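> call design_seq(struct)
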């Protein structure tokens, strides 16, 4: 019996998959990663649809609305103020798909609740963008200056940041809301933004402390670039991922902060409307008229979740190393 065995066939190298990311700019790579995140894309689409619905329904400023009621006019109570929205087709035994006279019902004094909810969504979105925008700009400037110059400049700016950051945001917001809540949503959001920049400042500072030691910064100094140009033309574009992701998280927190302040009576006040104010005014009617509580609560949770999902997508797009790894996909890979 022969102990010789046939030689094993040589293992042919597997053809490598073509890399379709070669030659793409950083912006296109980020866009491609973000679009590949289905949850983030769906979230941003739903958020835009909700925003368009709230603005087009009752109007905003010079933009007219298509809904026949507004958020202040009184109407006769119909069917005890119950919602008239119907989503069950007639062929399934329902009343057909229709909005009715008051799709979200009516408040206890007869105001159309759909119009009030749409106005509350508008104010939440205004607060989100104002606080997110102004807070991001302030935090970025403070963090960039502190991280670039270091020394006594860093010490002074960070000690000021520490003073604000140790005070609970709700306490600062209550003081600001008490003074500006009755002056309108724009002023309330502006002053809240002035005390909402601290977290972004610390994140940007940490990023600048790392980036300022890179070779391209030293090359810019040798070339005679000014500090302003180095900070905003060379270092900041490399830290923009941290800034954008932090801005989305701040925007989501802004929605919840405004809601909490209005619920406690320190935010937006009558005759204007806020989602938190609607919950506060109707919490005693939870058992008898639950729609007065659930409609604003659903949209508060929905807006906050949508913005957080978009923030997660942006984080994964700017830093793919943080992207979650699918265990099932790892097991299926030979």
């Amino acid at each position: 019996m022969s102990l010789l065995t046939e030689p094993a066939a040589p293992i042919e190298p597997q053809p490598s998959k073509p890399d379709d990311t070669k030659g793409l700019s950083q912006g296109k790579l980020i866009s491609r990663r973000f679009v590949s995140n289905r949850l983030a894309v769906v979230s941003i689409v739903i958020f835009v649809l909700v925003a368009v619905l709230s603005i087009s329904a009752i109007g905003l400023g010079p933009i007219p609305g298509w809904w026949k009621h507004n958020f202040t006019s009184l109407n006769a109570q119909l069917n005890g103020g119950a919602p008239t929205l119907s989503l069950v087709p007639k062929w399934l035994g329902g009343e057909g798909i229709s909005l009715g006279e008051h799709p979200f019902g009516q408040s206890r004094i007869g105001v159309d609740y759909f119009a009030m909810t749409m106005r509350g969504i508008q104010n939440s979105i205004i607060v989100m963008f104002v606080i997110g925008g102004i807070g991001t700009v302030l935090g970025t400037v403070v963090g960039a200056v502190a991280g670039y110059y270091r020394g006594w400049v860093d010490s002074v700016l960070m000690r000021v940041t520490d003073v604000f950051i140790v005070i609970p945001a709700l306490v600062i917001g209550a003081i600001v809301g008490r003074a500006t809540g009755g002056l309108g949503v724009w002023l309330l959001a502006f002053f809240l933004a002035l005390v909402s920049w601290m977290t972004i400042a610390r994140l940007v500072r940490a990023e600048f402390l790392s980036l300022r030691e890179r070779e391209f910064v030293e090359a810019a100094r040798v070339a005679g670039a000014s500090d302003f140009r180095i900070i905003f033309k060379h270092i900041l574009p490399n830290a923009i991922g941290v800034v954008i992701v932090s801005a989305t998280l701040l925007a989501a927190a802004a929605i919840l902060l405004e809601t909490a302040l209005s619920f406690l009576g320190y935010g937006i006040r009558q005759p204007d409307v806020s989602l938190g104010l609607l919950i506060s005014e109707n919490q005693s009617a939870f058992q008898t008229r639950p729609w007065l509580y659930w409609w604003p609560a659903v949209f508060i949770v929905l807006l906050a979740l949508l913005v957080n999902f978009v923030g997660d997508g942006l984080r994964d797009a700017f830093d793919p190393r943080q992207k979650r790894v699918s265990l099932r996909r790892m097991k299926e890979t030979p």
